[in-house]
Amino acid sequence: MQQRSTTITILADNCAAPGLKTEHGLSFFIEKEDITILFDTACDNTLLYNAGALGVDLSQTELLVLSHGHYDHTGGVAEVLFLAPNANIYLHPAAFQERYSIRNGTAKPTSMPDHARSAIINLPQQQIHRVSKPTMLCSGIGITGPIPRLTSYENPGGPFFLDTTGKQPDPIDDDLSLWIESENGLIIVTGCCHAGLINTIRSIVEHTGEKRIAALIGGFHLSAASTERLEKTVKELKEYDIRQIVPCHCTGKNATEYLAQFLGCPVEAGYAGLKLEFQNPPQV
């Protein structure tokens, strides 16, 4: 039987192809056989424009997955649910928390916008799936739920707090990632990887038993990573059979160049408008 493919289209990112908008945010449209998944919804004003320009019909979204509750991944939720009111949404309960980043003594809200929170809460309860453990969305696609923080050198990646005074660090426990089975191993899709890229990979590999990785795609939150962290990350990544890496969003230019320099697989910076295609596993 002829194999069918999985396609992943980057709808929003910090970089974009000519004619598309950019912003500090991330969104992927995933199509696999008979299922359509929107993974994150970016920030403010790029998602609908870029989707239209790319011919992606967001009203066809069946599953909406939120990697975590930060505004730059949830800003378009209300617009998506207006277009696709019957979509099922998957997120960790902590995604609704009030949270902040604090730099130079100034607290900046990083929470999910109120309009996004209201759009979710007002859905029929059967459409809201609060994820607290690894969960299969459909055959061959799963999400991690909370990821164990086991490495000593990985951290949430920034000055994140649950209060405006900086007394309550935010571990961003709601961080989750998605995996897709393909002919050449797992496609791992991340939002910001606040749990750490290596922690994320370890968790997914342990859960699935699949050690081959067809692609790592998403934000890795390495923009402020120390040289030591980058060195240890590369050392760990070399332990896996990785075919392709597509860093996006919060990975950072320096980290992307570092990965490209020291890893043996292709490393291509992602951008809005990039479309990736993978062969699905043979049907039994």
Automatic annotation (TrEMBL):
Species of origin: Chlorobium phaeobacteroides (strain DSM 266 / SMG 266 / 2430)
A GO term for molecular function: transferase activity
Domain Metallo-beta-lactamase: 24-249
Top-level taxon of the source organism: Bacteria
Database matches in SUPFAM superfamilies: Metallo-hydrolase/oxidoreductase
Protein name: Beta-lactamase domain protein
InterPro entries listed in its UniProt record: DHPS-like_MBL-fold, Metallo-B-lactamas, Metallo-beta-lactamase_dom, RibonucZ/Hydroxyglut_hydro
Transmembrane segments: none
